[in-house]
């Protein structure tokens, strides 16, 4: 058991369009990718991914977040309000990665930099160094960058070829606070799990309710959270007539109970852990025709 204190913190990746933010995120998180529901510590943000790795013998959890409303293209009143929101959102992350492209320091880059609050650790990430023929070529540019602000680190790298990503991990880890992890170390993606959970319920519906069950019945996962290692899942079965609802619930609620119980057992086997499942049946008249409702259910 490694007795080193763990480190954990929230990291925002900012930069003008096309500098390689998404590529960097993918490179950093790679197969560790786990989209998770947000915890109180990150409520101002959407969590894009969590990566847990030992960096220089310190177990470190990197939580990458999205900063909503980041907008630098037009500067009007609305954007000023949005920018204020960005400032607030960025003020409570632990580290900001300001991503730029090697050899380019544009007004848009500078605008993004201005939005990074002083007092939050800031790392300049100089991306796309693979486009340079010689390693040293980047040095004058790094020098120029260092003159723009008092950065905690300046890291040249290539998000595309994964070159020097380890240096970035080390630089960020050094800036993260010592604290316990916010997420389980082996957090799996919850998207597929959520999807699998809905599928298990659908399968039981078809098995146990049978042929009378219309195709217009759907399952929506309202809540999927991991609480103390246990998956807590709330699901709604949407039907379009109350007669269908009665059919699914069954006499004295027997049928729904069985659907829930069998689906839960399947999920526990599938996820390898305990599951608390609650299911409701709701009548949504004509739900399949209602575009906005469909959208809110996650259909295109
Ligand atoms: N040569 C090179 N190209 C890169 C690198 N990283 C990203 N790119 C390319 O740069 C382009 C933009 O990359 P994205 O990751 O989509 O950039 P972004 O900053 O997320 O862009 P927006 O989503 O528009 O904000 C893509 O064509 C990438 O393939 C790199 O390290 N080297």
From TrEMBL:
Q: Which residues cross the membrane?
A: none
Region spans: G4: 127-130
Q: Spell out the SUPFAM superfamilies in the cross-references.
A: P-loop containing nucleoside triphosphate hydrolases, Prokaryotic type KH domain (KH-domain type II)
G2: region residues: 41-45
List the molecular function annotations (GO) for this entry.
Answer: GTP binding; GTPase activity; ribosomal small subunit binding; small ribosomal subunit rRNA binding
Enumerate the residue ranges of region (G3). Answer: 66-69
Q: Which domain of life is it from?
A: Bacteria
* Residues at which GTP binds: 15-22, 66-70, 127-130
Keywords for this protein = Cell membrane, Cytoplasm, GTP-binding, Membrane, Nucleotide-binding, Ribosome biogenesis, RNA-binding, rRNA-binding
Localisation: Cytoplasm; Cell membrane
Domain KH type-2 intervals = 201-285
Could you tell me the Gene Ontology terms of the biological process aspect for this record? ribosomal small subunit assembly
Give the family, as the similarity comment puts it. Answer: Belongs to the TRAFAC class TrmE-Era-EngA-EngB-Septin-like GTPase superfamily. Era GTPase family.
Briefly state the protein's biological role.
An essential GTPase that binds both GDP and GTP, with rapid nucleotide exchange. Plays a role in 16S rRNA processing and 30S ribosomal subunit biogenesis and possibly also in cell cycle regulation and energy metabolism.
Q: How does it assemble?
A: Monomer.
Question: Per its record, how is this protein called by name?
Answer: GTPase Era
Q: Which organism is it from?
A: Limnobacter thiooxidans
- What are the leading ranks of the lineage? Bacteria, Pseudomonadati, Pseudomonadota, Betaproteobacteria, Burkholderiales
